[in-house]
């Protein structure tokens, strides 16, 4: 058996047999599902009805609010225009009102616009205020139109609603809502890579530090080259990670299906599409749903999966080399913080770029640039792939990633080779640079 | 004599610091070779180069007639001064892993392990984790790992540290047995009495330079001062002292004896010991007459302090 596969095997079993690995592997999906079910339960629960007193001196608006009572599940409006304003204010807290909406009588309608108050001892939600503003504004506009003797019906008819449809040159129909699905898929894969790099990169680092503090390192590298040990460690750890990931997917899916069957929550693909669908009329419904499913299947699924594997391997290996070099340079984990920051920053950056730039415009200069830079490309490019990426960009990005990986491994191996035999003091950046030249 | 390991003008620098300055050694086949030197002299650097953990900046190492190369790791067994094993790995598994790294097949490694575990009486440890063992027990495991693949060259860095006297003896006997079987042993230690006891060759490295190398007897011969420890029972001490100081340099000596004799250390220079003996037999009863042979300890301290 070749030495590297021997090391891979040991590292793999050392990780997998570890108690915390076993606990993590089988507990986290349970936790994840528990949280999901809990959140689902919470959101299906009805919030307490909040009572809002309307003190409408004009007598024009109260009915508009009262009319909402039949639909609104969050707020109950009460017309208390007859009760003295001051008395109302004093009794807000005692009577359990959320607040009082005070619409004073003004000389002109225009004056009213800035005179309305919502008196509350708690800070009211933004959506509530916006909603109230809209109701009053709508009513006011109507009154204004009537006062100006304009035909409200004619105006309503004249108002146009525009809906731009998205299509490709190939003639395929697209759906705007589908972009969200693409963002979700790209984001999920990008995020997954980041988590994996951080968790398993750290594991590689801990394992290097362990060998160093154990002092077994000297025995091992009297038999194998440090480079072999480093590569074996990185691969062995990643295999443990992949195993854990596969177990998570299996457990997670089966638990989710079990939970959904039990609670009767619909978690199939239609659940994701539901919000978009309800906006369409029932006649359009079937066709739209079909279109969605068709579009989902038209997503470059193969490129997404292959891209995930390629960028996962490239990104994980690249970052693991950093982690291994850091582990070799320090004596214990607390010392590693200083060197970890520059590793974490590009990861964070790529997630931010992904969620702001890519989501906004997948082909913007920033998105393209960051999907080329090797340190950020694994995450940013994966987020772009669902939107379609020209093949030459993919080729450059992958070539850069693997080229950099080879370069970094070479540097990391140098630091690793020196670092694992250095004990006692925390090296400075300057010293690390010197080690490169030994 | 046949040479197993030849170190030829090896230089190793760490930045500006010279760890080894053109150090040359030749380790004869079948010898126990004591590698001595104060802390920081460069012993570990040299051992690491022999183990191919680091590479020399210049100079070369020749093992059994061949330039040192990666395949040689399986001919070398190394017991580093800083001991360590994977704490949470089981003893048997760990030994198998380390033995396979040295090129043994799994079956062969297992066979050898069973032999050694039996020999050292530690059969019951196979399924224990290292963290459950005491320090001395872990040291024993490490010794087994070091010799398991029957290396031609064994390098022991402070092999007895951490052992109680009984176990230290067990290890010492094993080292001698390995020598009998034909292994060559490089032995680095600060315990001079074990050097006296075990080594037939020594080298002394100090401040990155090799100062002394050779057969232990030759080295001692070179460092002897031609002095004798003498014990005489005499009535006339003044007369005796007068006679001796005419010819030789005298200083008081200290050795164990049952009588209350006069104890002297006498340097005879180029004279023959018989001249001294003749002189003192005329003056009294000689109870003690021993040539003073320098101990390794003396040679070590003398050399190291002199050359500062």
UniProtKB/TrEMBL annotation, chain A:
Residue intervals passing through the bilayer: 21-42, 183-204, 242-265, 296-319, 339-359, 366-385, 391-413
ABC-2 type transporter transmembrane domain: residues covered: 19-413
Membrane topology classification: Multi-pass membrane protein
Keywords: Cell membrane, Membrane, Transmembrane, Transmembrane helix
UniProt-recorded Gene Ontology molecular function terms: ABC-type transporter activity
SUPFAM superfamilies attached to this UniProt entry: Periplasmic binding protein-like II
Entry keyword annotation includes Protein transport: no
Localisation: Cell membrane
Pfam families listed in its UniProt record: ABC2_membrane_3
Keyword Glycoprotein: no
Xref: InterPro entries: ABC-2_transporter_component, ABC2_TM
Family annotation (PANTHER family): MEMBRANE COMPONENT OF ABC TRANSPORTER YHHJ-RELATED, MULTIDRUG ABC TRANSPORTER PERMEASE YBHS-RELATED
Protein name: ABC transporter permease
Automatic annotation (TrEMBL), chain B:
GO molecular function: ATP binding; ATP hydrolysis activity
Protein's recorded name: ABC transporter ATP-binding protein
Pfam families linked to this entry: ABC_tran (PF00005), DrrA1-3_C (PF13732)
Domain ABC transporter: 5-232
Cell inner membrane keyword on record: no
Signal peptide region: none
Species whose genome carries this gene: Flavobacterium glycines
Keywords: ATP-binding, Nodulation, Nucleotide-binding, Transport
Top-rank taxon: Bacteria
InterPro entries in the record: AAA+_ATPase, ABC_transporter-like_ATP-bd, ABC_transporter-like_CS, ABC_transporter_ATP-binding, DrrA1/2-like_C, P-loop_NTPase
Similarity comment text for this entry: Belongs to the ABC transporter superfamily.
